[in-house]
Amino acid sequence: MARKKLRLKDVVLSIICVVFTIEACAPAAAIGNSSVFWWLFLFVTFLIPYGLIVAELGTTYAEGAGVYEWVRDSLGRRWATREAWYYWVNYFTWLASIAVLFPTTIGGMLGHQLPVWVSVAIELAFIWFVVWVSMQEVGDISWVMNLGAVVNVLLALSVGGMGIWYGSRHGFVSPLTPQSMLPDFGDPTTFTYLSVIIYNYMGCEVIATFVDSMESPQRDMPKAIVTSGLTIVAIYLFVSLGISTAVPHNRINLASGVADAVAAMTGARSWPFMLVSLGFLLSCFANMISWSHGVSSVTNRASKEGNLPRAFGAEDRKGRHLGSCVMTGVCTSALVVAGPLLESLGIGIFYVALSLDIVFTLASYVPMFPAFLRLRKIDPSRPRPFRVPGGRVANALFCWVPVAELVACIVISLVPFGMAPDQLKKLPLLGATVAVIILGEVVRHVSYRHATERASELGVELPAAKMGPDWDRRHNIHPRAYHLGHGSRR
Predict the structure, then answer these.
(1) What is the pTM of this model?
(2) Where is 474: in which H helix or E strand?
(3) Closest to 139 in 3D by CA, of 234, 11, 52
(4) 254-285 pLDDT, tens digit each
(5) Full domain range(s) for residue 318
(6) Would 469 be classed as within a structural domain?
(7) Theoretical Cys-Cys bridge with 379: which of 152, 218, 359, 469, CB 3.0 to 4.6 Å?
(8) Average pLDDT, stretch 68-86?
(9) Domain membership flag for residue 1
(10) Are 169 and 251 a contacting pair, CB within 8 Å?
(11) Looking at the 3D structure of the chain, how many domains does it have?
(12) What CATH number should be reported for the domain holding residue 434?
């Protein structure tokens, strides 16, 4: 039976479902009205270059592993392994943070906090349901992503509209004036939430892993990225302003800001509050599903090429990414089970998981931009169905300005600036980040050593540390052809 193909409408909705996350609106609204400036500034300096680069790379190098293959073919095996590792860490920590929101939201709907064991049980059930759905064909679950995109947009419009309506009747908590929408550069906390804005713009490259399921990826991908990008920035602006008009920005709870805004306007346990809460849970589930295929495709390919442990490359009889999905479920489960212990030590599991997610999401995108320039240089003759406009200078700016913003946001997220409590709480996050990076280097080294031994037994040659699209002309066969997880060439 032929697999269902994604049309342009499906691709647009999938990108909206991947990129737009309603739960991320609360941290953005916590910036205050000055978030308007940052949304627009980063739309021009980050989202536009990022979207154009993804459109070129995704239509030119469309093998199904997306950003991993771009980094591999341009910067080499070592950076490709780091890319796959950071990409996976960002997903399973994000899944953990979303899992924690489920019992919190359900408890808010019921009017009381759930017992710890009930919360953990709900978190585990959510995680493994996501894992199970993630193993289905993209075409078969496209309706989930489409529904999630529609629900996300409806939630955003509802919350933003209620906030503006409430403010017009009862007075705006944060007056909407031109001055209030500009950042105060004299405030040391001005840049603290900057990483949240960039984080909320990420995810377009996930669609590059759907190419095998698209009707016409070369035609649809650029159109979908532009259309969805404009839609997403408009929605983010609307809902962030709606929340900040109902709840003072310094009182917005990062975990429940959307529900808090609705409760402040209509009352806790009112029918609008209940509907928004249910929609919030559904949108969170759809977000996780929309990202899952991209992450499992990257880690599955990295494992088969000897860059991650073999467990990530295991597949079932239908070729589904069983190993990657199960590894995600196991590690996420371990993190949420450890949640009560972390809470007893004064470390919020939601803060830890979401912060690690943001840091490693930002880190996983850094290599993609120089990969774009490198591939232009070493593979100039390859046909490019879509090409980023502009000359060499413009393309260099499209590359290095976003890289500078990403690095700055990583530093701001991890390095304490001063001795204030909100700065000192970055220290555990900094320690956890360093530990994950070191563990990734160990995994990379051990995985490649074991892969080298298997390759020797099979009589094949592993990819070099540095390579490019001309590797096959120099070595007769491209390194991506070695699928060591199956012990064969294909």
Answers:
(1) 0.81
(2) helix 471-475
(3) 11
(4) 656 677 778 777 777 788 888 888 888 888 88
(5) 8-489
(6) yes
(7) 469
(8) 89
(9) no
(10) no
(11) 1
(12) 1.20.1740.10
